[in-house]
Amino acid sequence: MSAAGEVDLSSCGVHADGQLKLSVSMSNGITSVSELYQQTPLRVLFPRTEVAEPLTAVVVNSSGGVVGGDRLEVSVEVGDGASLLVTGQAEEKIYRSSGAEATVVTTLVAGAGSIIEFLPQGTIVFDAARFRRLTVIDGAPGSRVMAGEMLTLGRVERGEKYSTGRLHDEWRVLRNGRLAWSDALHLSDSHAAVIRPAIESPAGFNGSPGYATFIYMADDAAERVESARKIQDQTSANVQAGVTSFDGLLVARWLGDKPEDVRTAFGIFWAQFRASTCGYPERLPTIWNI
User: How many other C-beta atoms are found inside a 10 Å radius of the C-beta of residue 177?
Assistant: First the structure.
C-alpha cells in the first residue's frame, strides 16, 4: 500500500505480456488489413471512418493501465501507397511500482508513398511509476509519418507531483533504414534528488507537468516549418511551444502548467497540420471527444 492507501498493483505478481501486430496494404485504391495478431491485453478496433478519412485503428489496453513488470509491444506496418490513422481508446495510465519496470515498444514502418498518423490520447505517469517506452519510426522514400504523444507527470488534479520512480521515453527515427534522429527523456530517482530539480529547472520543464511532442517525417518537412509556426501562433499564452526542422524531420513541442491546455494546443496543431499537409479534414478522431 502507498502512503495514500493505494494498492501498488505491481506487487500483486500479475503482469501483462501483450502484443499487437497490424499490417495494412493498398489494393485497388483501398487500404485494408492484410495481417493482424493480438495478444491480451492489447486489442485493436476499426470504427467506421468519416468521409475523406483514412482507415482508422483504435488501440485498446483492456487491463485498464500499465503496471510494473508489464511488457507491451505494438508493431504497425503500412504498405506502399496505403494510409492509416492509429489512435488510442483513452489516456494510458502508468501506475506506481515497488521496483519492477514496465516497458512499451511501438514500431511504425511506413512503405513508399504511404501515410501514417500515430496519435495516442496521452499518458499519465503516476508518482513512483517505473516506465520505459521506445517508439521507432522507419520510413521508406516518399512516405509521410505524423507521430506524437502527450505526457502528464503526476496526477495533477489530485495535486500529485512526479518525484520518485523512473521514466525513460525515447524516440528513434529511421529514414530509408538509416538512423536520422534519436531523442530520449530520462528522469530517475536512482541519483539523489534528480527528478524534481530537472522538472523545476527553467532549463528543464520549468515546473510544468504537461508535455507534448509532435514529429513529422517526410521529404517536405523543411518546407512545412513556417506553416507549422503559424499554427503554433494560436497557442495560448500559458503554454510554451516551439518547432524546428532538420534532416527530413519537423519536431514541435509544447509545455504547460495545465495538461488540458497542452492537449488543446496539441490537438489544434495536429488537426490543422494534417489538413494542410495531407489534405485530410481539419479534425481529430471522434473518439478524442468521447
Answer: 8
d(CA 264, CA 232): 12
C-alpha grid cell, residue 285? 478522431
Report the Cα 288 to chain-centroid distance in Å.
14
Model pLDDT for residues 91-137, shown as the tens digit of each residue: 999 999 989 999 999 999 999 999 999 999 999 999 999 999 999 99
Q: Please give the Cα distance from 143 to 48 (Å, whole number).
A: 25
Residues of the chain under the 70 pLDDT cut: 1-14, 191-193
How far apart, in whole angstroms, are the C-alpha atoms of residue 84 and residue 270? 15
pLDDT in tens, 169-199: 999 999 988 999 999 999 998 765 589 998 9
Q: With beta carbons less than 8 A apart as the criterion, state whether 36 and 90 touch.
A: no
pTM above 0.85, yes or no: yes
Which of these, 121, 116, 120, lies nearest to 54 by C-alpha position? 116
Q: Is the dihedral of CA 275, 58, 46, 216 positive or negative?
A: positive
What string of DSSP letters covers the chain?
Answer: --TTS---GGGGS---EEEEEEEEEEETTEEEEEEEEEETTEEEE-PPPPTTPPEEEEEEETTSSB-TT-EEEEEEEE-TT-EEEEEESS-EEE-B-SSPPEEEEEEEEE-TT-EEEEE---EEE-TTBEEEEEEEEEE-TT-EEEEEEEEEES-GGGT----SSEEEEEEEEEETTEEEEEEEEEEESSSTT-HHHHHHSTTTTTT--EEEEEEEESTTGGGGHHHHHHHHTTS-TTEEEEEEEETTEEEEEEEESSHHHHHHHHHHHHHHHHHHHH---S---GGGG-
